[in-house]
Specification:
By secondary structure, this protein is an alpha+beta fold. Helices cover 45% and strands 10% of the residues. The structure holds adenosine-5'-triphosphate. Its EC number is 2.7.11.1.
């Protein structure tokens, strides 16, 4: 064997150790890696070996470090170093190969550190409420209630105003007299520009209470899921909070504020009033005091939120958002779902009626996930629900129930994992956002429990290829093959803002991407300093992305995207 040949053999050997783990300690990791590649139909050379394998990769990396140390040991050097020139060449090249590994590990360390530093900078900036902070509002009498703006199967929602809670951006403060005059004018259309939203910046949701009793304790307990998006000051410390937290039990889990999740500013119990339309629209749920035939209890729960101009469904009925806006809308839902998942909450009733919509200063729709009445919010945060009897509630919305939830059969030891269920629902709603019928509603007729991925209707060719890929991956039946909301969101972020970095991305390191992340952070920070452009949907999304940066999630997103760009979605689905 020539020295040149020996050198190249040595290099190859060093590289092989990294890629496949030929030596004994790496055998298991390599086998799993190969199996995973086969499972995702991933070509051997094009995608990072670490993609899709966060925890395994860590093991693999630690083992490689051990190997490098071994190689440097004196015994190893003596054995090869004292041999023929050919052996020395093999050893030299082998060392070089291992040197490359070390370099890559160093790159990884630096990229991970960059991600952590960026995350720390953006986590510090807390999401600000659009309303001026207010200290009162714990009684129904604190509000002027306007027209009914919505109704579901559990509640009626009314526009409301309180002189102490007007939007920060609105300089004008209307008096209650002005508000009443506006009301008398009888406005009908609801749009962001109309006075209705300016005069009634709040919405009050009045829950229908029948069967729970009229004590505050019972009401708060039985409707506690509605309190999951409630802010820290939502409950009156002296009354409701003590009821829940102090004498009787544990305060329900709450999620922190996020631009794509509704915020409940106040929650209190009060006697059911006779509000506009009550006798005509929901007489049965009124208490006997208001309707002798009514079945409702005398008291119920009220939730105070920001008033939004419409739901996602209402908006899509009358508007055709641009491709970019639609992509931003899907991304917002994924960011909202990721935020919930991280805090151990599965919404379980995602649908376009449960997404509210307003517009930012650029006219881009901003989406917020609302109505947490069916959510799973356990204190241990693992999103696993023991499913040992048919009486266990699997959540709302049967049509948009993820396959792993819809097909679960109750039994001893059965557990439903909800960690990717909402992400699946976002995949289904994405069809509506891109102007198509939701494939899981009656008109198209797929059933989540039985559909095959190849039956999913094609998305219009105008939908960007990366977005199509994300939607198809979100609708994978097997949750192990489905990306999490975080990874799917990362894919869209990279596709929207990191195209150049991605185009230059090779399969060996994340350094170029880390450089791009630093530039992106600088841009977002500067935008934040330059006034209102920091409050646009795009800026909020970019901040969400940067404050949740994890190297492994980013790697997985890159892996999926690079692979998807080489394959057509249909091939991925059949893999
Ligand atoms: N903050 C808000 N701003 C404007 N409209 C709202 C707001 N909250 C709710 N709505 C309207 O009220 C409707 C009913 O609200 P919501 O979905 O919370 O009630 P629900 O009875 O819990 O619904 P479901 O039948 O899904 O259980 C919504 O579809 C929407 O049209």
């Amino acid at each position: 064997m020539s020295v040149k040949h020996a050198l190249s053999r040595g290099l190859e050997l060093g590289r092989s150790v990294f890629q496949l783990g030929l030596l004994k300690p790496f055998g298991r990791a390599a086998a799993k890696l190969r199996a995973d590649r086969l499972r995702v139909g991933q070509p051997a050379r094009t995608v990072q070996p670490q993609a899709f394998l966060p925890s395994r990769y860590r093991y693999y990396r630690t083992s490689l470090r051990g190997l490098a140390a071994q190689l440097q040991s004196a015994g190893f050097r003596r054995r090869f170093g004292a041999g023929s020139p050919r052996n020395r060449a093999v050893f030299l090249a082998f060392g070089l190969g291992v040197g490359l590994i070390e370099q890559q590990l160093e790159d990884d360390r630096r990229s991970a550190a960059t991600c952590q530093e960026i995350q720390a900078v953006f986590r510090k900036k807390k999401f600000q409420s659009p309303l001026r902070p207010f200290t009162s509002g714990y009684k129904l009498e604190d509000y002027v209630i306007g027209k009914q703006i919505g109704k579901g199967s559990n509640a009626a929602v009314y526009e409301a105003a309180a002189p102490f809670a007007f939007p920060k951006e609105s300089g004008s403060r209307c008096s209650l007299v002005e508000l009443k005059e506006d009301e008398d004018e009888g406005q009908t259309a609801r749009s962001l520009s109309c006075c209705s939203l300016r005069n009634f910046p709040l919405a009050v949701k009045m829950m229908w209470n029948f069967g729970t009793g009229s004590s505050s304790e019972a009401i708060l307990r039985s409707m506690s899921q509605e309190l999951v998006p409630a802010g820290p000051l939502a409950l009156n410390k002296e009354r409701e909070q003590i009821t829940l937290d102090g004498h009787f039990g544990v305060l329900p889990k709450r999620v922190s504020a996020h631009p794509n999740v509704i915020r409940v500013y106040r929650a209190f119990t009060a006697d059911v009033p006779l509000l506009p339309g009550a006798q005509e629209e929901y007489p049965d749920v009124l208490p006997a005091r208001l309707n002798p035939d009514g079945l409702g209890n005398n008291r119920t729960l009220f939730l105070v939120m920001k008033n939004y101009p419409c739901t996602l469904r209402q908006y899509l009925e009358v508007s055709i958002p641009s491709r970019r806006q639609s992509t931003l809308m899907v991304l917002q839902l994924l960011e909202g779902v990721d935020h919930l998942c991280r805090q151990g909450v599965a919404h379980r009733d995602l649908k376009s009626d449960n997404v509210l919509l307003e517009f930012d200063s650029d006219g881009c729709p901003r989406l917020v996930i609302t109505d947490f009445g069916c959510c799973l919010a356990q204190s241990d945060s693992n999103l696993q629900l023991p499913f040992n009897s048919i009486w266990v509630d699997r959540g709302g919305n049967a049509s948009l129930m993820a396959p792993e939830v819809a097909t679960a059969v109750p039994g001893a030891g059965v557990v439903i994992d909800y960690s990717k269920a909402d992400a699946w629902a976002v995949g289904a709603i994405s069809y509506e956002i891109f102007g198509q019928r939701n494939p899981f509603y009656r008109a198209v007729g797929l059933e989540s429990r039985s559909y095959q991925e190849k039956q999913l209707p094609p998305l219009p060719s105008s939908v960007p290829a990366d977005v199509q890929l994300v939607i198809h991956l979100l609708l994978r039946r097997n949750p192990n093959k489905r990306p999490s909301a975080r990874v799917a969101a990362n894919m869209l972020h990279l596709s929207l803002w990191g195209r150049k970095a991605l185009a230059n991305q090779d399969s060996t390191g994340m350094r170029k991407l880390a450089d791009w992340l630093l530039c992106q952070s600088a841009v977002v920070l500067l935008k934040g300093c330059s006034g209102p452009s920091g409050n646009t949907v795009e800026s909020e999304l970019q901040r969400s992305f940067l404050s949740n940066l994890e190297l492994e999630d980013l790697r997985s997103a890159v892996g999926y995207l690079l692979y998807g760009r080489e394959q057509r979605p249909a091939c991925i689905l059949s893999a």
